[in-house]
Amino acid sequence: MKFNSLRKQVSNRSQVNSVQMLRGIACLAVYFVHFFYDQKLLPVSKLLVKASGYGYLGVQVFFVISGFIIPLSMYRNKYDIQNFGSLFKRRIIRIELPYVASIVLFVLLKFIGYTAYGTQKTFDIDWSTVLLNIGYLNVFWGKEFINHVYWTLFVELQFYIYIGLFFGAIINKRFWVRHVAYLVIFGLNYWWVGSLLFHSHILIFMVGIFAFQYAVKIIGLPEMLIGSAIVLFGNYYWTSNILHLDNSALIALASIFALGFIFFVKQRWRVLDFLGKISFSLYLIHVPVTLVLLPILEPYLHRPYYILIYKLGILICTIGMSYIYYENIEKPAMSLSRKV
What we know:
mainly alpha
């Protein structure tokens, strides 16, 4: 059965290639919603513009990936609650160092944009907001994220904390222990509502967690499928009736796509594999890099085809800069985190 092939990869401690490629797809989707969901491109391709509008679903795919790959890494490293401190330190080094570096880059590129284009009379930046962004403290002070993709990192941080605290119950082979833990976590939804809180996204993370549990033989295929169906239906109800979102069905479809991709895609595509490798760096810096590059020629381009070609060129440049960022910032942070 094709479902079992994932178990073989996991038991051999080999890299799950589908997860790496899925990261690349998710990151590209987010990029496209930010910079190709543009009315000026409609004469070129209505399909491209419309499809780019759904790129935000890449965030949901990232949450499914985290629900799968983070507990898998903890399981392989024989994580115990006593190692919670080390887990958190590794998170700070692996994720927060590149994140903080991207804040510095954001300010630098904003200054370059100011000096190069002179669109503003002053260097308009709220330094208190910048400093509060470093520890996600801006959320508690009512300040915005200076880069609108950063909110997802705050959600992922909360997931790290929860998975670290509840990991023992999640990998317990006794049915009732696991499900009591789920109920405790789900119950928090009744007290906390808001897109920046992990509780609002727990049901999407759970799809990845069920896949992890199946991959390491904690649960069987029926429980994985039934559990995923239940949490996706619950998320549909939660997002449509409590949060009043109109994209609930699309979120469910994106989660199903992510689950299917992890299980059934075995062929390795080099382009997607490369994009997956640098996906975190691309995710962190694509907004400030693109916003600096766009004004160079875009004001002088009036034909939609030229604008499309220019934006594709910027995408290639952004990928190149993300690779440089990966090699010089993210990769050293990864190596350092392994030493903790």
